Amino acid sequence: MNTPVTHGPALTNITDSRGPALNVVGLRKEFHVKRGGHARTLVAVDSVSIDIHPGETVALVGESGSGKSTVARCIARLIDPTQGAVTVGGLEFGGLTHRQLSRAYGDIQMVFQDPNSSLNPRMTVRQVLTEPLRLHTNADRRARDARAAELLTLVGLGPEHLDRYPSELSGGQRQRIGIARAVAVSPKVLLLDEPTSSLDVSVRGQVLDLLRELQDQLRMAYLFISHDLDVVRRISDRVLVMYLGGIVESGTTEEIFEHPRHPYTRALLSAAPQIDARDRRERTRLEGEIPSPFDVGAGCRLAGRCPLAQPSCRAERPALSPVSSTHEVACPVVLNDELIAQAVVPVQAAVPAVSRK
Amino acid sequence: MTTAKAEPAGREAGNLVTVTSFAGGFRTSEGFKPVLHDVSFALAEGKMTAIVGETGSGKTIMALSMMGLAPSTFAKTGGSIEYAGDDISTYDDRAFRCIRGGEFAMVFQDARAALNPVLSVGKQLIDACRAHRRVSVAQAREIAEEMLGKVRVPEPAQRMKQFPHEFSGGMAQRVMLALALICQPKLLILDEPTTGLDVTIQADIMELIVDLVHSGHMTACLITHDLGVVAETCDDVVVMFHGYIKETGTVVEVLAHPKDNYTEQLLRASRFEEMPA
């Protein structure tokens, strides 16, 4: 088990510098759940396709239950997708055996939300950082130790932290260790699952700066999963908006934040509290709360809550249609000027604080 | 209305709670650790005041002290919390019970953890109501149902029979709010009421809180780390850092023209502006 594993030739040769670092096509994940005595199928993720190029950050945005973390777990094969293909650096993950897969993990790494629970409290920083090197490279102990010290410097800490335990570090420092561990084996793709949501605002900025610097140096592709729209706006090149397992809108960061089209995207953006009055948008309101994924009908997932819903919305699930070459939206209503004229409210208008006395 | 300590001039008459030079700390195995230092601020009647700070700023222990809910390892070392002509920081648990729940109510961060998992929501509402108001069970049930309707829980009569685990996070927070408001408190303390909720749910809950506080002529104290929420909902703000008050004033003033260095840093970080090293 301790024998060092080298990257197989298949892994190092296929790398095409111009192709996407991560390519996901038609990802679908079903869970079979026993409910009330009989088995039912829950479709947690449906028809999700993602392309991320080296050096690019794509954000996956959505609320709890939208399936964004399931997407990440399927990509990393922590769970097996029901359908769809995941290709990392040109290597198709689907057919890999466990042994091949554990080698391939050198190319794809994950940073988790909560650095308190994703670091083993009984391992020192040195052990945390050298473990991936032991598994994925054939570096000897001295080289691993040197790399660990180098990684600490890379994430803004020093060699003095090597022999500390996670409990001796602050939340921000722990997240830096989580990042250093992920970066240790120079992966092509980094999956970041809410990496800043457990941090204070003053630390959040520093961690985002660190991620940006590391990306510039190492040309990694980031899949940045978050519900924090302010963070997403600052770090991403492109944004995918997920709702109940499906992508409802995708576009460049500017397209999504300045010209959101889908009613869900608008509702999400208009709900985010803003310090400055000029950043506030008129609320786009959705009825009720996110329904149970069991209760999603055949039509648009948002139909039951959408202020623009038409009878046709409940009949057929809309596919993503292009708005521009980079912007796609899964809502035929907003793409139809006649329908939109009847119902739509301006989203851009800045308004004063909500319901002041 | 400038910096710490100094009371906003002309506000004294309209203050529901006045905290003066309050200090305290925790008894630990390594000795006494002070966590609050010379904390002075006031909650103006009928207004919503935010206490803002990051992890370890002392904002939650300050709120718990106002509720008489500070853990037994916490000891006050000075100052006072004045309410209705009395220093409530000298109250023992028994004395506190007369105001807690009835006149002061609190909403906690994780509603599903704060509610009793083995009692139906209706039972919890009825019990809270009967603890402070002289009403029959039937009357209390009516009040509880009406209260659930007020916090916009759909089908309140059905929901009364359900247990906390059958509620979503947002719905559970509404129940928590109903539980806090059922005795018509004068002061509502909200400790990070929307942290952990989705943004669309957060916006609905905050809107509801602002409506209820204003329509019920209540005074509210919102503990939060989110300056966006403060800007959109509160009237006054108290900024805390490492147990000290850094700045107090109206939200409009403090956010537009922060006088304290830390407040400015916090604002810059929240707006993602570059910070000087």
Task: Supply the key terms.
heterodimer; A: alpha/beta; Rossmann fold; eight-stranded mixed sheet; 12 helices; 31% helix; globular; B: 277 residues; alpha/beta; six-stranded mixed sheet; four-stranded antiparallel sheet; 26% strand; disordered N terminus
Architecture overview:
The complex is a heterodimer of chains A (357) and B (277). Helices cover 31% and strands 21% of the residues of chain A. Chain A has two domains: 54-81 and 97-236, P-loop containing nucleotide triphosphate hydrolases (Rossmann fold, 3-Layer(aba) Sandwich); 256-343, no CATH class. Chain A contains twelve helices and twelve strands. The longest helix of chain A has 18 residues, at 201-218. Chain B has a domain at 110-184. Chain B contains eleven helices and ten strands. In chain B, α4 runs parallel beside α7 (169-181) and α5 crosses α7. The longest helix of chain B is centred in the C-terminal third of the chain and has 17 residues, at 199-215. Residues 1-11 of chain B have low confidence and may be disordered. Chains A and B meet through α8, α9 and α11 of A and α7, α8, α9 and α11 of B.
Please render the helix and strand layout as text.
The complex is a heterodimer of chains A (357) and B (277).
Chain A: H1 9-13, E1 22-35, E2 38-52, E3 57-61, H2 68-75, E4 83-88, E5 91-92, H3 98-104, E6 108-111, H4 115-118, H5 125-136, H6 141-154, H7 171-183, E7 189-193, H8 201-218, E8 221-226, H9 229-235, E9 238-243, E10 246-252, H10 253-258, H11 263-271, E11 321-322, E12 328-329, H12 337-343
Parallel strand pairs in A: 3-8, 3-9, 6-7, 7-8
Antiparallel strand pairs in A: 1-2, 1-4, 4-5, 9-10, 10-12, 11-12
Helix pairs in contact in A: 5-6, 5-7, 7-8
Chain B: E1 15-28, E2 31-44, E3 48-52, H1 59-67, E4 74-83, E5 86-87, H2 93-99, E6 104-107, H3 111-114, H4 121-132, H5 137-150, H6 156-160, H7 169-181, E7 187-191, H8 199-215, E8 219-224, H9 227-233, E9 236-241, E10 244-250, H10 251-256, H11 261-270
Parallel strand pairs in B: 3-8, 3-9, 6-7, 7-8
Antiparallel strand pairs in B: 1-2, 1-4, 4-5, 9-10
Helix pairs in contact in B: 4-5, 4-7, 5-7, 7-8
